[in-house]
Specification:
The protein has 314 residues and is α/β, with parallel strands linked by helices. It has helices at residues 37-49, 88-96, 105-116, 175-179, 181-193, 200-206, 214-222, 226-250, 260-265, 267-277, 299-313; strands at residues 2-8, 12-18, 24-31, 57-64, 68-69, 72-73, 100-104, 125-130, 134-140, 143-145, 254-258, 289-292. It is globular. The two termini are 14 Å apart. Bound molecules: zinc ion (ZN).
Length: 314
């Protein structure tokens, strides 16, 4: 059977038609509409009905950036135009006449890696998604873990420094305040104002981007830009501290590093995080592996489809 997996990001909506073996047979990508939920529903319905396999799609799974409880997203801080909770699953279901399941985007991303990527067969896994912000998901005891109200896995908002750098959530000292791409760019802008220099924004212009994307970061790092290197060292340290604390709490067997930065920097990034996390681990585990997500851009789509699937078979 074919299921449509929908991965809603702050920048793009990605949709794929996914087969029983978790292979993506058709895919499409569009900018995330900024006019709010109605426009988003329209975009999703439009993208799915445009597929050749449209008529054979018998279920939909959606990953959305916010905590999901009882099939409802509680809040959506990173999407523009959302002022109140909206039952997006029901709206899409009414339009397409198929069952629709909703999950958190980072949880769903790790699910993709769990059903058909680098986390296959693992029981205790932390997935950390490094992009604009820091998303994460957990597999515990061989099952996805979302907590009591769907709010588990806020790895990006673990506090690693009391009264530290300002985070996008309004608090201070979170991992994301040091390792989220948007916060790192903001900090660099402030440092430039204070007299430091960097090639980051020149590279951004060269690449024709409107903000420092993962690709821009990769180039600045490769060219050895001192300020970018310093910021990124801080990001690796922040993630490593969060990972070490999580491992001390949960005794995991695998850490999966995904998202735009992981996709661009590869296994080297996972290795660096491991190296910096190890000194902080109470019980070093030789079996513990640090891996970069294997499905890249597809992990969200594949994971979303996997939550759409059981609903169909029920
Ligand atoms: Zn935060």
């Amino acid at each position: 059977v074919l299921i449509a997996g929908v991965d809603i990001g702050g920048t793009n909506v990605q949709v794929g038609v996914v087969a029983d073996d978790h292979e993506v047979v058709e895919r499409a990508k569009r900018p995330t509409p900024t006019e709010g939920p109605d426009a988003l529903v329209e975009t999703i319905v439009d993208m799915i009905t445009a597929f050749d396999a449209d008529a054979d799609v018998i279920g939909v799974g959606i990953g959305i950036p916010g905590p999901v409880h009882d099939g409802q997203v509680m809040r959506v801080p990173n999407l523009e135009g959302w002022r109140e909770p909206v039952d997006i699953a029901e709206l899409v279901s009414d339009r397409l006449n198929v069952p629709v399941a909703l999950g958190n985007d980072a949880n769903v991303g790790l699910l993709g890696e769990w059903v058909n990527g680098v986390a296959q067969g693992r029981s205790n896994v932390l997935g950390v998604w490094m992009g604009t912000g820091i998303g994460s998901g957990l597999i515990l005891g061989g099952r996805p873990f979302v907590g009591s109200l769907g709010g588990a896995g806020e790895f990006g908002h673990m506090i690693i420094r009391a009264d530290g750098a300002l985070c996008s959530c309004g608090r201070r000292g979170c991992v994301e305040a040091y390792a989220g791409r948007r916060r790192m760019a903001d900090t660099i802008k402030q440092m430039v104002k204070a007299g430091r220099t960097t090639s980051l924004f020149q590279i951004q212009d060269d690449e024709g981007k409107d903000r420092p994307t993962s690709k821009v970061w990769k180039r600045a790092l490769k060219e050895g830009d001192p300020l970018v290197t310093e910021m990124f060292d801080g990001a690796v340290e922040a993630v490593a501290l969060g990972v070490a604390s999580t491992i001390n709490l949960l005794d995991l067997e695998q850490v999966v590093i995904g998202g735009g930065l992981a996709e661009k920097l590869g296994q080297d990034l996972a290795d660096r995080i491991r190296e910096q996390a190890e000194p902080f681990m109470m019980q070093p585990n030789p079996e513990l592996s640090f891996d970069v997500a294997a499905l890249g851009d597809d992990s969200g789509v594949v994971g979303a489809a996997s939550i759409g699937r059981p609903k169909v078979h029920r």
